[in-house]
Amino acid sequence: MRAFRNLADADLDLPVAGCVICGPNGHGKTSLIEALLYPEVFRSFRGAADRELVRFGADGFRVEAFVGRSVAAGYDARTRQKKVMLDGAPPLRLGDAIGVVRGVVLSPGDVLLVAGGPKERRRYLDVLLALTVKGYVEALSRYRRALLHRMRATAAELPTWERLLGDAGAVIVAARQAWAERWTGHYAAQCAAMGESGAAAMAYAPRTAGNADALCAALEQSRERDRALGHVTVGPHRDELRLTLDGRLLRSFGSAGQQRTAALALRLIEAEAVAESGGGVLICLDDAFAELDGERSRKLGELIAARVAAGNQIVAAVPKASDIPEVIEALPRWSMREGTVSDGA
After folding, report:
1. Residue 120 C-alpha from the chain's centroid
2. Where would a tag sit more exposed on the chain, N or C end, judged by fewer CB atoms within 10 A?
3. pTM above 0.90?
């Protein structure tokens, strides 16, 4: 990695089983995890814009990973251009390079997946499906491009852009619905494994019927309203992944502990889904046990232990050695000080 946030330039060779990174808060542990996973979908898992990832005073950044194949991404702050390379050459499609690196981050901030607005859960779905469903990235790209053009289109152009939105949107909705139906049982099981006694469930909730013709009809009917409001009000960019406990929305009625349990369950099934689609997963624990009570911390440790036993690679960031959970205390230890990583805690 080069010129990434506050991190010192480095070439790192992660141990096969992973490692624990110890260091004070604010010294770069989360930024390192961000750099490790940037080549997954070529975006910050924290949602930061590329320009925000450039070290102060630098012209851009570059990160590269080798996991059987080489995948690299560079961003030029002067031109605001990003360049992705796969095995030393530009990929024919960006989707070909997405998912070469396969990882999941668990952190206290994940509670926003449950307590935050629908946008948080749509982003969760989009990243996960980009990694696990062939053609999803391309459909999402077509949809977003058509969304922009539709708001700028003349009356004569509207039907063309609405058809493109309908066709791409139908692919997106179908993939999201199929995933939610496939994994709702696993989600409930993970909530139960974390100690939740209520009936947990999730379901994808589209605002309009998901087939292409229905989406096109809804877009046509919403033209005047959309023009008045300045944005498109129907389509999968407005849909929701509903998370409930005993039939009540967790976002509105769940306790802080219940919301945290649900967020952890989402991340754990994310790791399971990515692993199921092929290959191991880099599971990053960014102070993931912080803010958990003793029972939830113990149960999360058991679930992480199962993933360690399954051969997944673990990178855990903790402020000090005493914060290392027992389940991963045998991993090699690295230290982080002022953006510099070194062996030994």
Report:
1. 10
2. C
3. yes
CB 179 within 8 A of CB 125: yes
Residues facing residue 316 across a β-bridge:
20, 285
**Residue 278 in this model has a pLDDT that exceeds 90:** no
Q: Which residue has the tokens 């000090």?
A: 320
Q: What does the DSSP 8-state code read for residue 93?
A: S
Question: Among 240, 232, 242, 235, which Cα is nearest to 209's?
Answer: 235
Mean pLDDT, to the nearest integer, of 316-334? 89
Q: Where are the beta strands (DSSP E) in the chain?
A: 18-22, 60-66, 70-76, 81-86, 103-106, 200-205, 240-245, 248-249, 282-286, 313-318, 333-337, 340-343
Burial-class residue 85 by CB neighbours within 10 Å (0-12, 13-18, 19+).
Answer: middle
Q: Which residue(s) pair with 200 in the sheet? A: 245
pLDDT tens for 14-65 read 998 999 999 999 999 999 999 999 999 999 999 899 999 999 999 999 999 9
State how far the Cα of 287 lies from the Cα of 324, in Å rounded to an integer. Answer: 9
Distance CA 198, CA 240 (A): 22
Q: What is the SS3 assignment for 68?
A: coil
Per the listing, tokens 């010129």 go with 3
